[in-house]
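Appendix B, record 7
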Amino acid sequence: MQKQWIFLFLFCFALGSAVAQDAEEKKQEEPVYGWENKFIGTLNLTQTSLSNWTKGGDNAWSWQANINGTFTEKQENFNWANTIQLLYGNSKIGSADPKKSDDQIFLESVYTHRLGNSVNPYVGVSLMTQFTTGYDYQVEPPVAVSGFFDPGYIREGLGIEYSPSDQFNTRVGFALRQTVANIYAERYSDDPETEEIEKFSNKPGAESVTNFNANLSELIVYVTKLELFSELKSIDDTVVRWDNVISSKVAEYISVSFNFKLYYEPRVSKMRQLSQTLAVGLTYSFL
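C-alpha cells (predicted):
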C-alpha cells in the first residue's frame, strides 16, 4: 500500500520537474510583486422531466456549486499563498428525498521565505470539514455519519518547499494533524486503546504536499493536488488526499469539468474512497 502512495508522489514530482525544466529553458521575465487574486464560481444544473413517457424513467434533478479562490502575495523575500475551496451539491430522483452528493470546506495558508533559489523553508496550516450532515445511504433507514466540524481536520506543518516554477511546487516537512469530532467522535477521533471516547486527537507526523497545474491547450486546464500525511508511530498508515480537475471553457460563461478524487484514511476505512464528477455548467470569475 505504501509503495502506491510513493509512486503517486514521484509521478507528480516527475511531471512537475519536466514542466519546470521546460520553463527554465524559456526566456526569464522580470518578476512581478504584489497580490495576485483569483476567485471563480461555478454552478452545474441537471434536470429531467417526464410526462406519459412509455419507455419508463423518473423525474430527476441535481445541482452542484463550487467556489475556488486563491489569494497570493509575492514579494522578493517571501511568498504567502492562501486557498479557499467550497463545494456543495444535491440530487433528487422521483419522489425520494434529496440526497447530498458533494460537500467540502477546505482552507489553506502557506508562507514561504525566499532564499533566492527554488528550495525555501515554509510554514503552513490547513483546515478541512463539511457544511451539513452526511448520511450512509447503503443502509435502510439512512444513518448519519458526519456533520459540520464533525469531523474537522486541522494540520500545521513546517519544512522545505521546492518550487522551480509557478506551475509546480512540492513541500516536505514535519506536521501536526488534529482531528476534532463530537457526535461521531468514536468513528473519527477516539483512541480505541482507551476507555474514554476522545473528541480531539493530535498526531505528530510527516507531510508532503504537491501542487501542479498545466494548460493542456488554449482552453483546457489540468490541476492536481496530492497530500500525504504519516504518523510518526505508524508510518505505514498514510492519509492520502489526491484531487484532480480537468476543465475546458466552451463559451464565455460555460465550462465542462471532470473532477476525480481519491481519499484514503485507514482509521475510517481500509479501502480507498473514490469520487468522480463530470459536469457542464456556468462559470464566472469575480476577480
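Remarks on this record: The helical segments are 2-25, 185-188. The first strand starts at residue 34 and ends at 48.
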